[in-house]
Design a protein that fits this description.
Blueprint lengths: L2 H21 L4 H5 L9 H25 L10 H8 L6 H20 L3 H5 L1 E4 L3 E4 H31 L2
Antiparallel strand pairs: 1-2
Helix pairs in contact: 1-5, 1-7, 3-5, 3-7
Amino acid sequence: MNRKRAALIDCLEASGKDLLAYLALLSDDEIHTPPAPNEWTIHQVAAHLRDTEQQVFLLRTQRMVKEAHPAVQGFDQEVWNREHYSPGEPLKKITAEFRAARRRLIRLLRQTSDKDWANWATHPEFGKISLDWLTMRNYSHTLDHLVQIVRVRERAMLRELNS
């Protein structure tokens, strides 16, 4: 595996660890209070990250490693959330399942061959996608939500300081 791909896998692994460490700092109130009307709570975001890790990134990677040019399905996060999200699910369970899925994904990516990285899948929205693209998309997705969580925490801290 080339250095760029190894570095990308390292970044993906680190982003998951950073996410979990940051979630551990939040209070129950911060986790369950929507930051604004019609916005997801941190709890919903954490469940979404776990679900996409398991149902999107890990599954697509597994298929791309096992199958030549698989057709992968789209993922409608709003529909998935409506049908599967449970506000009472313990955050500890969500984070443990995210951690397990991310570890499986990292292990799989570290075992891939150049042939695996040369493979591609067909996505209904994005067309041909590569393992490079999918891994970068997962990394970016994790960072986007980590920033979202950090901003919620920052606003809460400012409210606390100004009250």
